[in-house]
Structures are given as C-alpha cells and as structure tokens.
Known about the structure:
Layout (H helix, E strand, L loop, with lengths): L1 E5 L5 H6 L2 H8 L3 E5 L13 E2 L9 E2 L1 H12 L3 H7 L1 E11 L2 H8 L3 E5 L5 E2 L1 H6 L3 E4 L8 H13 L9 H5 L21 E2 L2 E2 L2 H4 L3 H24 L1
Parallel strand pairs: 1-2, 1-6, 4-7, 5-6, 5-8
Antiparallel strand pairs: 3-4, 9-10
Helix pairs in contact: 5-7
S-adenosylmethionine (SAM) binds next to strand 5, strand 7 and helix 7.
Amino acid sequence: xxxxxxxxxxxxxxxxxxxxxxxxxxxxxxxxxxxxxxxxxxxxxxxxxxxxxxxxxxxxxxxxxxxxxxxxxxxxxxxxxxxxxxxxxxxxxxxxxxxxxxxxxxxxxxxxxxxxxxxxxxxxxxxxxxxxxxxxxxxxxxxxxxxxxxxxxxxxxxxxxxxxxxxxxxxxxxxxxxxxxxxxxxxxxxxxxxxxxxxxxxxxxxxxxxxxxxxxxxxxxxxxxxxxxxx
Length: 231
Ligand SMILES: C[S@@+](CC[C@H](N)C(=O)[O-])C[C@H]1O[C@@H](n2cnc3c(N)ncnc32)[C@H](O)[C@@H]1O
C-alpha cells in the first residue's frame, strides 16, 4: 500500500509516521509520503489559494496549483490519474468514512489523499481530479490533515503486520466476525474493584461459553445502536 498525502502542512505527519502501528506497516513494505502543493505552485511567492468568486470570507485552494502538484508528482494529467488510483479529497460534505469504506480502501494498492485548508477546495478539484470525496464526520475541522490521519490510521491497521496480534483486527467493532456489531466489553485485573465484579463467565476458563457471552454482548450493543438511531 502506497499512500501519498497532499498537504500544506507535511510536518503534521512526522509524529503520525513515527507511531508503532504505522512504522510496523512501513517496515513491512507500505509507504507513506507527503507532498506539499506549495512546492509545485506555478504562482509567485508560493501562492496556493485565492479569494472566492462571488465574495465571502476565506481562501480557496486553486485548481491550477493542485493540477501542478499532482502532475508534477505523478507525471500524468490528474483527470487520468483518478482512473488509475483512488484520489480522495477530504471534505466535510463527502461520503462518511465507515468500516465498509475502510475495508474497501485497505484493499487498494495505492491511495492519494488531498487535504484542504481555509475555505476548502475549488469545486473543480473535487469534480475533475478526485475519485472520491470523503468526510470523517458531520462537523468541520480546520484542515484535512487530521481527517487524512484518521483515514490512514483506520486503513493501515487493517494491513498485515500493523498490530502485534492479528486477532485484534479480525474480531473488533464492526468486523464481519462480529456481524458488523460493536465489540463486546473487555475487563482486566482486578477481578473486583469497589464491589464491581467482572462477569463470572470471563473467569471460568470455559472458552466456548466465553465466546457465546461475547457474541451475545456484541449483538446487544448492535441492537442498542440501531434502536438509538431509529429514535
Ligand atoms: C475549514 S474546512 C472547510 C470547510 C468548508 N468551508 C465547509 O463549510 O464545508 C478546511 C478543510 O478541512 C478539511 N475538513 C474539515 N472538516 C472535515 C471533515 N469533517 N472531514 C474531512 N475533511 C474535513 C477539508 O479538507 C476542508 O477542505
């Protein structure tokens, strides 16, 4: 998996790339690279954005600058690029990231993530250069960097070698192993704390009963979530 992140703030990703699960997948062959559109801008003074036509506050990322960065990095017209790899613009209005989209993206050989800033992208970037527009939720962040990290984190932890224990990823919230339900509750020592007892079944050593109990709790949580959504 190769992930290229187009961002005006590449230094944000230095900390992210140094985290264990990310460095694990990088050691296993994945690649995470930042590209700063400012380094490719054809405009003077490193300009990347401009005031919106029609007026209004804020600055808009220019389509010519993004074209120059994508073309400069990949050596291909970005209109063609999006037919060859997923080019994902991060925007509050996009398709909301969920487990099925994460699974889908984790199966791709390469991703390009475009981080907006200020007022966001000139719409022509979304229309002509992006294959997908993805949101991490219905709220507004100051920039696409944190959203890109959320996408990378969720996708990279699906890859072999990311986590110490492979089972942690196969049987977790929303996985097929749990029929798409949230994960069951976990407990650790002490078995009793302030009178709060860990469920007896988990102390029984009876793996089949523990498995049944966990699946049941997971189903309950799923139903609870569906009920809450339908209210
Ligand atoms: C301040 S926001 C722009 C908000 C835009 N004017 C609007 O009202 O939809 C700047 C950038 O942050 C990123 N961003 C903000 N919230 C996001 C979210 N919920 N999901 C994904 N990206 C987001 C996008 O890349 C966006 O272009």
